[in-house]
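Title: Prediction job returns without error message
Component: structure pipeline
Severity: low
Priority: P3
Assignee: unassigned

Description:
Job completed but the reporter wants confirmation the result is attached to the right record. Sequence as submitted:
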Amino acid sequence: MFRKVLVANRGEIAVRVMRACEELNIGTVAVYSEADKDSGHVRYADEAYNVGPARAADSYLDHEAVIEAARKADADAIHPGYGFLAENAEFAGKVEDAEGITWIGPSSSAMESLGEKTKARTIMNEADVPIVPGTTDPVTEPEEVEEFGEKHGYPIAIKAEGGGGGRGMKVVWDESEVEDQLESAQREGEAYFDNDSVYLERYLEQPRHIEVQILADEHGNVRHLGERDCSLQRRHQKVIEEGPSAALSDELREKIGEAARRGVAAADYTNAGTVEFLVEEEDREAGELLGPDANFYFLEVNTRIQVEHTVTEEITGLDIVKRQIKIAAGEAVDFEQEDVDIDGHAMEFRINAENAANDFAPATGGTLETYDPPGGIGVRMDDALRQGDELVTDYDSMIAKLVVWGEDRDECIERSLRALREYDIEGIPTIIPFHRLMLTDEEFVQSTHTTKYLDEELDETRIEEAQEQWGGDTGDGGSEDDEESVEREFTVEVNGKRFEVELEEHGAPAIPTGDVGAGGAQASRPEPAGGSSDDGPDIQGDGEVVEAEMQGTILDVEVEEGDEVAAGDVLVVLEAMKMENDIVASQGGTVTQIAVEEGESVDMGDTLVVLE
């Protein structure tokens, strides 16, 4: 077994992995960016190493910095969590090549073959796993998309090879959209996955999203741990996940589970993973289940632990993260398929720092003035928070996960409502009111919803009413007393390793505190990813200033200085919360200044373009 594991991630998933390590008597190492220097995963770890500034590309995504931190800590394994480098085959390969360090996850070769969607479709097709009609080779030209549309009809999904979770996927509803949507999918693929290859699939208009948890070892054992239903989604992003699915008959459930096992075995896959499927919904009465003849199709394999792995842990009693670690250490899966027993029902609620009534806009800052999570039988919290923490907005908006178990789905829903009522967070907005609404929504309660329900059918005024009724204090993005604090806590870094120093002095005036370098000099407080207001761009003239509506990353600048634009023309493409957002001109004019460039991180309110 390993001596010490570096967790190449942050927040709740980093703490989740560290807890599993502790139970296995394994030391833990955290990595953190400047923005995360006071975050919960840093507090929890035995050791912590700074790997760079707030921008993820310069810290959590920096291959060499993460591996170097593992060497400094003398860690003999790296666990990637999910997101960031978790599905990066190149990084996995570098860890495999690093002497004395083991990669806790599938092999880089398996990640590469299943991470590229066309290769994965080919593998699954050969393993007799149903796949959605589509291409097995990448497409590059609009004419290829048009030919596919003529053969299979519209709508068509254009998907990035390395995409997932809706990122890098565009839907073409008719021939007029082909060129723009192909270009957009290729651009997202290049920006996020360094791969502009895309492929085509027939777009299913009313599917359910069903995924199967897999464990596989180096000794040829492949087990599935049942399915999760992730059909409640907003813009292809999961919001509530549950297991087992309340829509599947036992016969259909078994067919999907065995298909997942066949596909994984054919790919020579090891460690934990998830095989995702789309199941076509049918016209059925309330309480009627989808039978064994229902159509289901392979979607993709997630070659990592997933956010919602907690659901499967609650209904099987198996610690999936511990199993990952043991498999990476060479141990065999020690149970047979028939030993997997599904007990009760579980749901996971993503606690995102967003205002659901404002198009799920992420919070731009704030302090957890009150943080009092729920408890009691069947209630699990995965978080890395404590009261008084400042919200870090440089990364994903999910701050915690509430996981609830019940003897059956009805009890799970009732217990979830109780837990959400108990969950007291003040200082930042969250989507807790939205979750409470969904647990009283007829479509969700009857489990007749599809992946399109939130985007196309739910009345948005109901979300606004829920936010107004249960929203609580959304905070003002900060505290006036922050500068008055007399608490003397220092973070000292020596050769990149973090040490905590606490000094207590009563009645003394406040002093500025910050990170102290090895030489003793006090470092300045890190600025937000988009820069501070003091060193922003020098705005020329008195024209219309187009500002960022939310924190994100500039994907593309569509105009140049001197261009004439009309109202509604796209100026900049901004990625936020895994979605492309077109920033358009509200009036016509001439572009006199462009304040951003492709790949730059911006904060809400940052200047993007000036028009006159």
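Comment from assignee: result matches the submitted record. Residues 475-486, 508-535 have pLDDT under 50 and may be disordered.
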